[in-house]
Specification:
heterodimer, A: 359 residues, mainly alpha, two-stranded antiparallel sheet, two-stranded antiparallel ribbon, 58% helix, 2% strand, globular, B: 82 residues, elongated, membrane (chain B)
Chain lengths: 359, 82
Amino acid sequence: MTIARLGQQVRGRKPAGGESRGPGDGTTMYDPQYQQQYDIYGQPVPQQGGPQPQLFEDTSGQAYNNYGNQGYGGGVDYGYPNTRQGGQQGQQAYGAYPGNMPGPQIFQDPMVANMAMQYGQSLASQGREYMDKKIEKYVSTSQIKYYFAVDTHYVMKKLQLLLFPYTHTDWSVRYEQDTPVQPRHEVNAPDLYIPLMAVVTYILVAGLCLGLQKSCVTGDCPELLHRFSPDVLGMQASSALVWLVLEIFIILATLYVTAIQTHIKTLDLLAFSSYKYVGMIVSLLAGLVMDSLGYYGVLAYCSLSLVVFMFRTLRWQVQGSGGTMEAYSVGNKRRLYLLLFMSGLQPLMMWWLTHHLVA
Amino acid sequence: MAFGVYSLLEAAVLCLNAVCVLNEERFLSKLPGWGGSHVQGFGEEPGIKTQIFHFIRSVKTVMKYPLIPLNICIILFKLIFG
């Protein structure tokens, strides 16, 4: 390790002399390990200038690679001098004597502290890269980052589009090199930020609605009971998620069975299916203000807006490169039906997931 | 009304059971168009029926053996927890 070699540099060499390789010998902690190896094999002891060039070399990678070797005891170390390079000698020698740990006073030396910090930082970044690589196999994080690249302007524009899509004229999505432009720069691209926030807000608003409702379960109620309890929040959450999963699964199954070729990815579908939660929140809040009339009125308006939004957005996404006539007309008819199906499913789901929250 | 993630899992297992239980020789062979992997041309869109048959065949092939321990787990779960 660099710490051992740095200590060797700072504290000066101890005289070589065929000292014991026992781990309990604390006086040999800085230096003679390097020379001891040479002594045992009868090679000349290297001068002070030997290890100097390797002092500032970043050996954290090698330390990581040699990690498995450092657990060996002294007796197994005979093979190392034959295979090592110049820069690795201090590390392996250090590892061969687990008892010769440098004392804590070594870290007060600023050079040592800097080296230790650098080493720790490089180790941490290596660990992070390793974890990222492992997670990438299951939940492609680079793709998900694309969906969260939003800014305030995009969110405001998108919310406005969800609730009033009638005046927007250009629904196409700009592509750059076969991937859609980030949502930050392109209003029509789907994102996952709004859906995520909308789902969480929906759960909270559902709890609010249940708390403000009073219902009588038994025949005569001397007092009115609130329908809210903390368990209900959890149930609403899992229920909403389950219906979301079901809807996406049905759409995926339909896409497979009808064999339509689209550019749509599963995460896009997740985003589009979750946009209805925005309308649901608005309807629920309106239902709180004015009971059934407010709820159904606003629900009808939000449903209509969402249907128009979905239809216009998906027409560009499902048809690939924007509305041109395809070779087979069967594909077009199927796409149209799929669009209508998806759009029509939204109001139904909106009503189904909220009607039990408004008395 | 869906009750939660476990219900979803149970529903999925039940549906897969339903697909895997369809008997090949008594029922599926009698369906018109069942044996049709050679009928499809290349480059044309496969019909809905062919797609569904492909789906059934692949589910039966893939899920036949994993479904057995899954079912055993759910049965034990229901026995113990009711």
